[in-house]
Amino acid sequence: SLSAEQQQQVIGVLDRDTIEKFYNLGFQDGTQGKEHGYSIQDELEKLAIENKQVEEETAPEINKRELPEANSAELDDIYYYDQQPPPHGRKQQSIFSKLLNMSTMGSLFYIYRLLKEKGTDQSTNLFSVGQLAANLQHHTEPWQQAMLLFSLYNLCRILLSW
Asked: For the whole model, what pTM was predicted?
């Protein structure tokens, strides 16, 4: 087990000022419209280097061959070596993956269903643009109009984000 001073050295890398600095970097990225994790990449690399130096200083006191059992209380004191930091930022989605998500499929289904319902003439069972325009203007409930606008907005948002 590590002494209190050695634990403080390891924990001291993430003090309140450091956490606030990382938060502010993320906040600035969000307000400037940058990709998630854009500004923090260099800071995380610096922190990883500092953390590695602290681990190298405390490593001789840790016997890595005598690891405690998984249910042991000493498990919290183990340092796991050779761990890579998580990848930075999000992966860029392809247009195919953007088009094949649940919200897009739901919007397409609702638009198709509403257009088919409102554009089909009851007497002939044929689709008519004139019938569609008349029914959308005079016989569509407000909630249906709102859902139609939301679905169209959702599709336009995805198509214009290419």
From this structure: 0.43
The answer to whether 40 touches 25, Cβ cutoff 8 Å, is: yes
Q: Is 110 exposed, middle or buried (0-12, 13-18, 19+ CB in 10 A)?
A: middle
Please state the three-class secondary structure of 79-123 as a single string.
CCCCCCCCCCCCCCCCHHHHHCCHHHHHHHHHHHHHHHHHHECCC
The tokens describing 90, both together, are 């999000």
* Alpha helices, DSSP H, located in the chain: 4-11, 16-32, 40-58, 95-99, 102-119, 129-138, 142-160
CA dihedral 108, 113, 116, 118 (to 10 degrees): -110
Task: Write out pLDDT tens, residues 59-84.
Answer: 555 444 455 555 555 555 555 555 55
Separation of alpha carbons 90 and 97, rounded Å: 14
What pLDDT digit, counting tens, does each position of 78-123 carry?
Answer: 555 555 555 666 667 777 777 788 888 999 999 999 999 999 998 8
